[in-house]
Recover the amino acids of this structure.
């Protein structure tokens, strides 16, 4: 053995092997520590237990933990999922949108093959044969003053009133385009976001006003969503960030990603995180903006960006957001996240979409994991609505109803 | 020492050292072949997040759907400018390339005996018509589609394809932002204007040492977004474009814009527009007595350019997304068959449409009739990586762009000659002093 060790080649080889081994070990460990928490199956352990003696640091940690728990307790957590598919009476499993019509005690669901209405425990379906402009129903809203239901489809806009469907399209009205990605009722006005611009329909005067690159600060008239509140309307313009329209002054302003590059986000909190915006919602004086790259929050003064790798967000690919009071519901391609500015609750199913769990998180830190059986219909969540203690989800493979369990 | 011990030790070294090296190569490459020298803000600050480095997945339902029974045809969609558009000739080139691919596939038996059928749609009409046409294609039951050329129509259409969940391969729109929308259903087989811009900036500023370049471009989105990365790259190499003039696609004279450029006396002129406009501009530049070297966008590689530029086309340099003079036998056969059938030479739009349809057909043969599986196999970055078409290899990046190297094209004796495009090398200079001498 000594002879072998005295050989220079052997000695050099052994040193290299040891160095290589240590390098691999170091790199592997550092890789693990830097890896973002994308696998939410892991519940991070938190050490709130008392120390042998109190220190300033331990007291601060206990105080922080107490605050985190209080924050988490204010977040609604939904469970007791009941799932619906074609077998239960839906016209299609692929659901784009859901709207709770609390005044009529019913729920409206838009699917790829028609409108479904859940009332008294039964589904009733409507298609083009009943007067819909197209069977692909992608957005629904209810006009508060009249109670009329406005339905955005892949081939026109419908107003469902008095049991009849009235159709609006490019040929019979001032609609900007027939593909209505989003419809939003604000007072007496109905706003639509289409591939040919945004439209404002005054239900009193029956007149349309169209907003495109000709009269609003957008490069192209591609709009994807509308939101409103506090006398302002926000239009999610595909490639144009968020366009704000002040209803009182009739002035526009736009919010775009300040770095100006599609392939990066230079700073997460310098503005909307990307110009490709997909949805917006306003509540509690906060504007929430969804993109396929993460989410932004705007309080009227400061922007804050959230990504999957630095927050409790289920995924950066966000199909839809709806804010209700202080809580925003975020529909992503990998699950549903809810957030109140401090605490996240992210709902995830297993790979088979049979069972699920809710993760209560602050940042990337998982405070609690609540198992759910069954989970909701499918992790690919396209739409949602919440009212009182009930939440409804439209997913890629069915519709789900959840109850507030805490 | 025994030779067997030596051999074992050497083997251990061979096994372990590559592991260390591989671990050290984990850093991702720049998105979109962006040269290290041109990565945004890179010499000043790292970005908080870099997009498009990982391919987008589709996590929705649909893979469980069984293939349809008793279908009489396998429908594929086509969207292009076929009526009412000034780029109709390009649309028909694209359509003919697609039709030829379908015809050849059906001659080989279609899909398990069922013929393929192209469902043809025009993209030019009322505002947002392209989106409505995609919805119609969805109603028709297509399995995937190709199209289109115009930037605006392409963008409008991909939002609809996302809603309807149908894969599209774009063979004609080089707008870099087209795939930067992060839609997991959108691929593009024609190399984009990023690649053209980087090649032109290198050729103009680095290789030929020009410093004061004028740009004249179409006023539409094709001109605005097409020159975007040229302008940005020019700034980073220290020589911002000194003047930008614009024209309408239907203009037939450009004298006012060219006179303004002439007064500034640039080193070189870059034209970004359709083949006919570019040809007319080249002619008027020379007729005004301007002798500067002329560069242009890849739409110049079209017989129509020579019709308008005539003898003045000589020495004009542009880029081309593939090498039409390649000795690739499948390209030669395609060019021959295309000419025999349609009586004209295929240009890039026809060649890439032919490849796009063939790629979709290969995907269907691989996974059957399921829209999600077709998407999965086309985007897995492996199955179709290095897939060889008539235009060359296909190398997808994280945003499903084709990163295949492109070519420079220079007019010599009345025809384009092609050569590999140059590649940037990184410089250690942190800041290049901008020269604005005009």
């Amino acid at each position: 053995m000594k002879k072998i060790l005295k050989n220079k080649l052997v000695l050099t080889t052994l040193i290299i092997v040891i160095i290589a081994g240590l390098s691999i070990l170091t790199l592997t460990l550092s890789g693990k520590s830097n890896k973002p928490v994308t696998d939410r199956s892991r519940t991070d352990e938190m050490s709130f237990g008392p120390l042998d003696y109190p220190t300033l640091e331990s007291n601060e940690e206990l105080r922080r933990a107490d605050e985190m728990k209080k924050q988490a307790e204010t977040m609604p957590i939904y469970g007791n999922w009941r799932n619906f598919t074609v077998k239960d009476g839906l016209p299609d499993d692929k659901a784009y949108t859901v709207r709770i019509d609390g005044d009529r005690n019913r729920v409206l669901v838009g699917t790829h093959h028609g409108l479904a209405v859940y009332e008294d425990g039964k589904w009733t379906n409507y298609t083009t044969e009943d007067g819909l402009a197209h069977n692909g129903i992608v957005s629904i809203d209810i006009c508060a003053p009249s109670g009329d239901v406005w339905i955005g489809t892949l081939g026109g806009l419908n107003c469902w009133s008095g049991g009849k469907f009235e159709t609006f399209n490019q040929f019979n009205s001032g609609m900007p385009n027939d593909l209505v990605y989003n419809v939003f009722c604000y007072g007496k006005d109905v706003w639509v976001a289409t591939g040919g611009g945004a439209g404002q329909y005054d239900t009193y005067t029956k007149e349309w006003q169209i907003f495109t690159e000709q009269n609003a600060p957008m490069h192209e008239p591609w709009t994807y969503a509308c939101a409103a509140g506090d006398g302002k309307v926000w239009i999610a313009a595909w490639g144009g960030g968020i366009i704000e329209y002040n209803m009182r002054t009739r002035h526009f302003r736009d919010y775009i990603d300040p770095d100006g590059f599609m392939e990066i986000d230079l700073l997460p909190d310098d503005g909307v995180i990307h110009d490709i915006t997909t949805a917006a919602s306003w509540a509690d004086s906060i504007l929430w903006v969804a993109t396929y790259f993460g989410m932004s929050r705007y309080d009227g003064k400061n922007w804050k960006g959230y990504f999957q790798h630095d927050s409790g967000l289920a995924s950066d690919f966000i199909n839809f957001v709806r804010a209700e009071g202080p809580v925003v519901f975020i529909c992503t391609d990998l699950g549903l996240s809810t957030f109140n500015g401090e605490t996240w609750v992210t709902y995830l199913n297993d790979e088979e979409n049979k069972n699920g769990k809710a993760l209560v998180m602050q940042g990337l830190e998982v405070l609690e994991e609540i198992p759910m059986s069954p989970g909701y219909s499918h992790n690919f969540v396209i739409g949602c609505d919440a009212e009182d203690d009930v939440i409804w989800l439209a997913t890629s493979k069915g519709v789900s109803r959840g109850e507030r369990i805490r | 020492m025994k030779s067997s011990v030596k051999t074992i030790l050497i083997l251990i070294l061979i096994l372990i050292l590559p592991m260390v090296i591989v671990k050290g190569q984990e850093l991702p490459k720049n998105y979109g072949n962006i040269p290290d020298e041109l990565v945004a803000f890179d010499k000043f600050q790292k970005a908080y997040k870099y997009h498009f480095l990982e391919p987008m997945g589709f996590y929705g339902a649909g893979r469980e759907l069984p293939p349809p029974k008793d279908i009489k045809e396998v429908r594929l969609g086509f969207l292009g400018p076929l009526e009412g558009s000034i780029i109709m000739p390009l649309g028909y080139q694209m359509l003919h390339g697609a039709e030829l691919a379908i015809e050849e596939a059906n001659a080989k038996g279609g899909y398990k005996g069922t013929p393929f059928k192209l469902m043809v749609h025009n993209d030019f009409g009322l505002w947002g018509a392209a989106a409505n046409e995609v919805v119609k294609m969805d109603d028709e039951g297509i399995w995937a589609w190709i199209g289109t050329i115009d930037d605006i129509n392409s963008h409008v259409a991909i939002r609809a394809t996302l809603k309807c969940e149908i894969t599209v391969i774009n063979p004609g729109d080089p707008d870099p932002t087209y795939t930067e929308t992060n839609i997991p259903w959108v691929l593009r087989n024609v190399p984009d204007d990023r690649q053209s811009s980087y090649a032109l900036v290198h050729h103009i500023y680095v290789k030929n040492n020009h410093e004061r370049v004028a740009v004249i471009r179409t006023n539409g989105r094709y001109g605005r977004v097409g020159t975007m990365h040229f302008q940005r790259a020019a700034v980073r190499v220290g020589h911002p474009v000194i003047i930008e003039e614009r024209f309408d696609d239907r203009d037939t004279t450009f004298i006012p814009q060219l006179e303004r450029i002439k007064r500034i006396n640039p080193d070189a002129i870059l034209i970004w527009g359709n083949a006919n406009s570019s040809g007319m501009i080249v002619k008027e530049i020379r007729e005004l007595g301007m002798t500067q070297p002329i560069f242009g966008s890849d739409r110049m590689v079209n017989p129509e350019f020579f019709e308008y530029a005539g003898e003045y086309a000589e020495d004009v340099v542009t880029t081309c997304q593939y090498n039409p003079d390649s000795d690739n036998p499948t390209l030669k056969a395609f060019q021959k068959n295309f000419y025999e059938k349609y009586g004209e030479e295929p240009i890039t739009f026809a060649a890439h449409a032919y490849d796009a349809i063939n790629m979709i057909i290969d995907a269907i043969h691989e996974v059957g009739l399921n829209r999600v599986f077709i998407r999965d196999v086309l985007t897995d970055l492996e199955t179709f990586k290095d897939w060889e078409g008539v235009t060359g290899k296909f190398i997808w990046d994280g945003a499903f762009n084709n990163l295949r190297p492109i070519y420079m094209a220079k007019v010599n004796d009345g025809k384009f000659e092609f050569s590999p495009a140059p590649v940037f090398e990184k410089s250690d200079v942190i800041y290049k002093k901008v020269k604005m001498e005009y």
Remarks:
- Residues 17-27 of chain B have pLDDT under 50 and may be disordered.
- Chain B touches chain A through 54 residues (CB under 8 Å).
